[in-house]
Design goal:
Structural class: alpha+beta
Helix content: 40-55%
Number of strands: 8
Order of helices and strands: HHEEEEEEHEHEH
Radius of gyration: 23 Å
Keywords: Membrane, Transmembrane, Transmembrane helix
Strand order of the largest sheet: 6-7-5-4-8
Strand content: 15-25%
Length: 197
């Protein structure tokens, strides 16, 4: 049976393992390059190619390390007054829970994305919901319920297993919002595992 707590532990272990492997390869490439040049395994113009290749590999490893670090820093603070989404590089996104009208989830193979639908003025980085887009069914529901056609949405892709907690917090703080049946299944799973009501 699936366990959110175990999934969070696995994600932390995977992150630490990826850091370790990246740093190990980084040091190994530098050492092997230095050893190859010092021991004259490569000479002349070959040494320049070896250094160039090593620098490219080191740069790619550094990019991977930074990517891992910044992805791990994604977080969401949800309260009755504000939903603050902290996204490294993209900046923070602040939403009002009172404007959230519908919450859905998109299930992937090993993960899911949270889709937050809002009414009101457009906020930067929110996508406009329209009747011909990916969420036609939801557009129709919201259009009939609110008798307006200005809706926007945000897809939360990062966060891993913490998204169960974020979904639960949305449920507890977005009083105007309707939650899809699939979203409620995820919320129920979280509540059962953490003995919440």
């Amino acid at each position: 049976m699936f366990s959110i707590k175990k999934a969070i532990k696995k994600e932390r272990a995977r992150l630490n393992r990826n850091y370790f492997i990246s740093f190990f390869i980084f040091i190994l490439v530098a050492y092997l390059t230095f050893a190859a040049i010092s021991l004259s395994v490569v000479k002349g113009w070959q040494s320049y190619f070896t250094i160039a290749y090593a620098l490219i590999i080191e740069l790619l490893i550094l990019i991977n390390i930074f990517k891992l670090y910044f992805e791990s820093k994604f977080s969401v603070d949800i309260s009755f007054e504000k939903i603050k989404i902290h996204q490294p590089f993209k900046g923070n996104l602040s939403l009002q829970p009172s404007k959230v009208v519908y919450v859905d989830v998109i299930s992937n193979k090993d993960d899911f994305d949270i889709v937050i639908f809002m009414k009101g003025k457009r906020v930067k980085r929110l996508l406009k919901l329209n009747e011909n887009g990916d969420f036609k069914r939801i557009y129709k529901i919201l259009n009939e319920k609110y008798n307006e056609d200005e809706f926007y949405y945000y897809i939360m892709k990062k966060g891993g297993a913490k998204k169960y907690f974020y979904l639960y917090k949305l449920y507890k703080n977005c009083f105007e919002a309707e939650f899809s049946r699939k979203a409620m299944e995820y919320i129920k799973l979280f509540m059962e595992e953490y003995n919440l009501s």
